[in-house]
Known about the structure:
The complex is a heterodimer. Chain A is of the alpha/beta class. Chain A is about 40% helix and about 10% strand. Chain A has 17 helices and eleven strands. Chain A has helices at about 10-15, 20-40, 50-65, 105-115, 155-165, 180-185, 220-230, 250-255, 280-295, 310-325, 345-355, 360-370, 380-400, 425-430, 435-440, 470-490, 495-500, and strands at about 45, 75-80, 120, 170-175, 190, 215, 265-270, 295-300, 405-410, 445-450, 460-465. An eleven-stranded mixed beta sheet of chain A has the order 1-3-2-4-6-5-10-11-9-7-8, with helices on both faces. Chain A is globular and about 70 Å long. By secondary structure, chain B is of the alpha+beta class. Chain B is built from 16 helices and 14 strands. The mean pLDDT of chain B is about 90. Chain B: It is an enzyme of class 6 (ligase). Chain B: It comes from Nocardioides jiangxiensis. Chain B: Keywords: ATP-binding, Ligase, Nucleotide-binding, Protein biosynthesis. Chain B: Belongs to the GatB/GatE family. GatB subfamily.
Amino acid sequence: MSWIHTTAAEQAAALAAGEVTSVELTQAHLDQIAATNGELNSFLHVDADGALAQAAASDARRAAGAPLHELDGVPIAIKDVLATEGLPTTAGSKILEGWIPPYDGTVTAKIKAAGLPILGKTNMDEFAMGSANENSAYGPVKNPWDHTRIPGGSGGGSAAAVSAFQAPLAIGSDTGGSIRQPGAMTGTVGVKPTYGSVSRYGVIALANSLDQLGPVTRTVLDSALLQELIGGHDPLDSTSVATAVTGLADAARQGAAGDLAGVRIGIVKELQGDAWSAPVVERFDESIEILKGLGAEVVEVSLPSFVHAMAAYYLILPAECSSNLAKFDAMRYGLRVTPEGDPSAEDVMKASRDAGFGNEVKRRILIGTYALSSGYYDAYYGQAQKIRTLIIEDFKKAFEQVDVLVSPTAPTTAWALGEKADDPLANYLQDLATIPANLAGVPGISIPSGVSSADGLPTGIQFLAPVLEDARLYRVGAALEAALTKQWGAAIAAPAYAKEA
Amino acid sequence: MTQTIVPFEKALAAYDPAMGLEVHVELNTNSKMFCGCPTEFGAEPNTQVCPTCLGLPGAMPVVNGKAVESAIRIGLALNCEIAEWCRFARKNYFYPDMPKNFQTSQYDEPIAFDGWMDVEVEGETFRVEIERAHMEEDTGKSTHVGGATGRIHGAEYSLVDYNRAGIPLIEIVTRPILGAGEKAPAVARAYVAQLRDLIVALGVSDARMDQGSIRADVNLSLAPKGSDRLGTRSETKNVNSLRSVERAVRFEIGRHAGILDAGGSVVQETRHFHEDTGETTSGREKSDAEDYRYFPEPDLVPVAPSREWVEELRRTLPENPTARKARLQAEYGFTDLEMRDVWAAGALPLIEATVAEGVAPQAARKWWVAELLRRANEAGVELAEVGVTPAQVAAVQALIDAKTINDKLARQVFDGLIAGEGTPEEVIEKRGLALVSDDGPLIAAIDDALASQPDLVEKIKGGNMGAIGAIMGAVMKATRGQADAGRARELILEKLELS
Lengths: 501, 499
């Protein structure tokens, strides 16, 4: 077995025990990327030299006996939505082609400070708009489980990279499910932390009030370790919460022991029904039985406002993004297209935006501009904010009855590339279960719940907890993960990548 | 279309003006509104910038607490309510030197609202109602190169300096000011002047209109006399001096009247004021329907100043400058005219400090306004920067009282002080300015003067005491101004046996 098939926690332990060097680990992952990225397209930019230099520096620190972060030397991939000084950052868009940020986002800075070699930047739907990673200006990502399938979106690159053993750890961003839904599609663990508990400074904003960075890993413990690394108050992010979210790795280790006695779990009534495919429900029901077997008390709870969440989301999100994207005017950075003749500045902006923004981006800019325009604000944006308040209240009431909520992460398994490419609504519906957490700011985790009996592709189960109670997700998630792994005999993994070639 | 400007008096015989003033105040915080960049005026272009104020992808704003404090203090000084909870909003529009293509501002939730300021014009008091004072950020600054006008049209290229982008601004908006009639231009000027005085007293801004740290937008409309309806308004942007505020109102009244008299309708638009001609020209058309697509800024948490903090700020407000002026004028016994000159010269704090050193108010006023102001004007500096301190003025006055020098010599002492020749005593020593009170040289000079002007001696003896002045003049000339005038007069009278 190669080092790439070990978890981040195992790699960290091996580094600490002197069984491997960071350079060896990093090189192993770079080799895997080199061998597989041509097919998967999960990385937009690979920084082999930079990663190896950081790995060598980590090994030197360790040799010198310096105090090290637990994950020092374990390589990581970063979604292309987060600013990385000196590395191209495009948010999957042509309009930022070639832009190299002159600064690091806070999470990038924390990763560098902790000594994790950065392998590169992962592919994503343009400006994080999409559920299939088919909206990337740099081509779709393929699902490691089946190359004819989508990997989920918008963090398809990060999910595929972790699923295909290109990286043990990756950073994703979750605005309406973009960490959790691709997690479900690729058999990886994805976490959307409590809004504000991980700094957004340096995140190219899709919808600022919904966006959240989070971990993408293969195990619950690895996500816990990564969230502890990237979280914490940031004076550069006004929405950053003052209260630190801690005890996550401890909760994961405690959960893995398998005792959920006294834990109350609520199945969300509104996240069931015809939209949910039978194979997904089958795996979900199986997980529920396991949770009961571990001692959890499972009840059904109703959050009636959830039926309006999708509508509210698709007004708030485009409104915010229409404003965020106005800065891309081709004047100061990124793409500039100059039409023939004697064009005015306005002509240059029009031509650049036309060439630089994809269809989905243009669609949402138009919707958002309309939703905010005078005379429509109250009817659309204002109403959506009221729904948001109702959803927050529904969550509060539900969490008076139960400790965590549970649902399938996505209604179906990964679909075929191109299958829904021309149907935005069909794509939007994929985020049915994940969106409410973003509207309310509560944390959520998706863990693999097995594979579909119909197509053999992974399915995911999602847990949601109250604001700042992220530790509950790790405890429950790790307990289920341990039980499922025991049942399967090993962690599930993309078959073509699980063994050495 | 030719423009008819109706004479001011004629315009006001037919129409009632309504004014609204929007004054932007650039705060003198050390850092910008939403980032830590410095705010120094006049720095090399684009040296005071960071990802946030450049609007780079991924960068985020954080509110400057000092700017919030300044906003609250301005609000309190304008008798406003202070919001218990308010938010920033995005004002979405395109502007070439605005990095994000939206401006972070306050929309329907200003930090301060519902205030007032009493403005005095020629003894009459107008209450100007303040609708709101809100926080926002400034934009960058464009320089258009190659054209004849300095405007973007016709320019070969434009340079953008983002040093100013993100500097905190407070925008103070009045409700329509009605009923000022022919005093409208003076009321507008007095309002802006009083507001500036308030800003200076609060110490929240450099308050330099010439550097744009205070700038006024003048909204004006006319309605037929007796009508209770407001007319269509024009908005003259970025007026940069008190005099221009007054002139802009006056010009717009005449221009609107010209349009209305001809049966036309005023176009709602922004206008530019031209200092050289005193006229305004059309900017861009602006309708009420202009759509800024405001929505709450999702990257900023709401501002919720605690009531304790607000009350603490209220307790520490400086004395209102209008009240302070009235109090000091009464204490010092200055006439209205004297007070106006003192205020216009920015001399009140200097006089106050000089009086505190024990100098009589009138003497302090004389030195600062009648004497040192001329030198400040010649040097092109503010009075406070002329190079003489209140303590030095007090020292000079003490030397006069001790008859070491007289008023005339004091002027030369001030020259020496400004030239950096040391203390007043050192200047007197170096320049040989001490009064001659020794009788010997005085008697010699008096004898010479009397002997050379026998006709004057006759006049004085005939009771024309005014003629003594001419003898005194000759004596002063002979002693190069260093004669003790009192002693010389006594000696002249003794000589003529009149004492």
